[in-house]
Amino acid sequence: VLLSHGGTEMGQGLHTKMIQVASKALGIPASMIHISETATDKVPNTGATAASSGSDLNGMAIIDACNKLLDRLKPYREANPKGEWKDWVKTAFFDRVSLAATGFYKTPDIKYDFRKNEGWAFNYFAYGASCSEVEIDCLTGDHQVLRTDIVMDVGESLNPAIDVGQVEGAFMQGYGLFTIEEPIHSPQGSLLSRGPGAYKLPGFTDIPAEFNVSLLKGAPNLRAVYSSKAVGEPPLFLASSIFFAIREAIQAARAEVGLTGYFRLDSPATSARIRMACADHITKKIPEPQPGTYKPWNVIL
After folding, report:
1. pLDDT digits over 172-185, tens only?
2. Contact status, residue 269 vs residue 179, Cβ threshold 8 Å
3. Where is the Aldehyde oxidase/xanthine dehydrogenase second molybdopterin binding domain positioned along the sequence (predicted)?
4. CB atoms inside a 10 Å sphere around CB 90
5. What domains appear along the chain, each with residue ranges and CATH number?
């Protein structure tokens, strides 16, 4: 079976999942299914592989196409119930039955009026929970993530190995968003944090020392392909647990020097922000800037 779909494989395991969907729908081993790379000469007018919709949209379209093939092969399966896939296909071929099919799917019942706050903006919702433990260095502003535990709702996972990897990857992307990556501009609008020397990304050493990810069991989603759920982007915000853990650590450090009131910590929680929030005798020597007494060198949006 040669399979073409409208999704773009960029390392997220979409091709593997689509082979699994076709395998289950047709009732044949995955080894008998091969992917033809996405191209408009095979599947034109595709939607974007974005917003974690790749598996949902293309998986349902594949099921639609597989059902059409199964309907055409039904007489041959009934006539030869002990036969195999190759037997039914061979007989159908010589009977001049079309063995190619296209499937189509669009998300149903999506219509939302923002002015009236009426309708349904999403097909379903994904849920997750995370807890992180961090350690900060009050003198340098550096921090380490000691442990993170995540439970993610992905419905009935199509491929747990892929989904766990997606959760881990999205979480680390969110880690960069909340702690490291900071676009800085000059007052004239020039980007100062240009390139890897000034704009840092999460690396191997930023991964939590203990990283536990589990998929929620017993939560099927009847509104998507084989009761699964999207998993690409939903886990990203779970990395906010690191940001808030850092804030809790700063609050504990401030309490040790008698500061118990409210303090502001903007995201991302960079080393500079952590250091300055950990108020001590050194930071007290830095006077508060007064309007009109200085010229800003940067603008942080």
Report:
1. 999 999 999 999 99
2. yes
3. 1-208
4. 13
5. 2-113 (3.30.365.10), 124-301 (3.30.365.10)
The contacts of residue 197 (CB under 8 Å, 6+ apart) are none
Q: In the structure, what pLDDT confidence band is assigned to residue 47 with cuts at 50, 70 and 90?
A: confident
Angle of helix 85-94 relative to helix 54-79, nearest 10 degrees, comes to 80
Asked if pLDDT for residue 300 goes beyond 80, the answer is no
Structure tokens at 298: 């940067």
Q: Residue 5: is it exposed, middle or buried by C-beta count within 10 angstroms (0-12/13-18/19+)?
A: buried
Could you tell me which residues come within 8 angstroms of residue 195 by beta carbon, excluding any fewer than 6 positions away? none
Q: Is 256 a catalytic residue?
A: no
- Short-list 16, 94, 121, CA closest to 62: 16
CA distance 74 to 72: 6
Catalytic choice (133, 233, 248, 288): 233
Q: Residues with Cβ < 8 Å from 114, sequence gap 6 or more?
A: none
3-class SS at 273?
helix
What does the pLDDT look like over 220-258, one tens digit per residue?
Answer: 999 999 999 999 999 999 999 999 999 999 999 999 999
Counting Cα atoms < 13 Å in the Cβ hemisphere of 100 gives 3
Q: What's the sign of the alpha-carbon dihedral 226, 154, 221, 60? A: negative
